[in-house]
Amino acid sequence: MIQAAIFDMDGLLVDSEPFWQDAELAVFQSLGVKITRQDTIDTTGIRIDQIVKHYYKTQGWEGPSCEEVCDMILDKVIELVSIHKPMKPGVMHALTLCKEANLRIALASSSPLKLINATLDALDIGAWFEQCHSAEHLKYGKPHPEVYLNAAEGLGIDPQNCVALEDSFTGLLAAKAAQMRTIVVPEHEVATQERWVISDVKLTSLDELSIKMLEA
């Protein structure tokens, strides 16, 4: 029986993926790192410190440390989210449905807690979430299931009694590895890819979510 809904954040609640792409392109290119927008798309859902360490290992740069580069990218994303407040369609509908279904609501994100708090404040939806969990300081980020398992444990609910809502394939893998029911809302550009078949439900928007999908 489903007792909790655990939401991803970037790309699902907030249309921040283009901001991440812009920030990564600007910062990495300023350091002389050869990177394309497709490269930033291909790493969607992966923790930013892992991305930065990958490019430092494969291409390297002089000057700022990996930690400083992460902060440069993060600060740019926070700035853009705070200005534009780009809530994704159907967010309030989905949160309201979860409440109507008497589900506990939590958040499990790869993003640093600093960005999580800034985003929830910008969108004015923080009060909906009983708990917020970040993979920032975990040994492994998504697709490792730890952040989802931590969210379930924090709620005191068996992972098999949770439904995870995701937009990225990396996040979907994490939720599946945690043995949660999965609802995915992939970006339009990749929505037709066959790999989404491993999800329990695939939507084009959170506006399509129903209580039946949550509880099945």
Explain this structure to me?
The protein is of the alpha/beta class. The protein is built from nine helices and six strands, in the order E-H-H-H-H-H-E-H-E-H-E-H-E-E-H. Strands 3-2-1-4-5-6 form a six-stranded parallel beta sheet. Helix 1 (17-30) packs across helix 4 (66-84), helix 3 (48-58) crosses helix 4 (66-84) and helix 4 packs parallel to helix 6. The longest helix is centred in the middle third of the chain and has 19 residues, at 66-84. The N and C termini lie close together (8 Å). The mean pLDDT is 96. Its cofactor is Mg(2+).
* Content of β-strand: 5-15%
Query: What is the fourth-level CATH superfamily of the largest domain?
Result: HAD superfamily/HAD-like
Structural class: alpha/beta
- The topology string of helices and strands comes to EHHHHHEHEHEHEEH
**Count of all domains:** 2
The neighbouring-strand order within the major sheet is 3-2-1-4-5-6
Tell me, rounded to a whole number, the average pLDDT. 96
Coarse morphology:
globular
Low-confidence regions: none
Please estimate the helix content: 40-55%
CATH architecture annotation name of the largest domain: 3-Layer(aba) Sandwich
Oligomer: single chain
CATH class of the largest domain: Alpha Beta
Rg (CA only): 17 Å
CATH-derived topology of the largest domain: Rossmann fold
Total count of strands: 6
End-to-end CA span:
8 Å
Keywords: Carbohydrate metabolism, Hydrolase, Magnesium, Metal-binding
Pfam families: Hydrolase (PF00702)
Protein name: Hexitol phosphatase HxpB
GO molecular function, one term: hydrolase activity
